[in-house]
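W.,

You were right to be curious about this one. When I first looked at the sequence I had no strong expectations either way, so I just let the prediction run and decided to look at it fresh. Below is the sequence, 161 residues in total, followed by the output.
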Amino acid sequence: MTNKKNTYIWDEVKHTNPTFTKPFPAFGKTLTTIDPMYQIMVMTNTFGPVGRDWNYTTNYTYTDKLVFAEVSVATDKNKDDFWNYFGPVSSCQSLYKKNGGLDDEAPKKAMTDALTKAFSHLGVSADVFLGLFDNNKYVSDMKEKFSKPQVADASKINLVK
């Protein structure tokens, strides 16, 4: 049984707008990828501006062939100046492209992947990670849900902390 007290953030961020997903062939099947900027937008909509109401840190480690990114995330959901930290969540990328050239985007790719994994721990786009996007009916329901205008709750807008 779900304890709503423990899943209030998860329940708020678990659904993914299909507009910000795309299929990605991998491991002999098709997976669904999520636009990382969409995930940042979800975090900002849920918690507030990055750097004020949520934040992250990244530490990089380099080897001869790989870059590792360790991301930790902090949130202040209750706006009480009590930060909730979790992580680090890690990812790694090859420093070299398939042609042998240096991939100058490798650190960014590792950081973005680690952020995506960290956000999933809060429930961001949980429906994708739980495999629900493999069901066409579910995706159709999400398209309908996100096609409706979203009503803003003015009470949640706090421009000055």
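Here's what jumped out at me. The first strand starts at residue 21 and ends at 26. And, maybe more interesting for your project: The radius of gyration is 18 Å.

Coffee later to discuss?

I.
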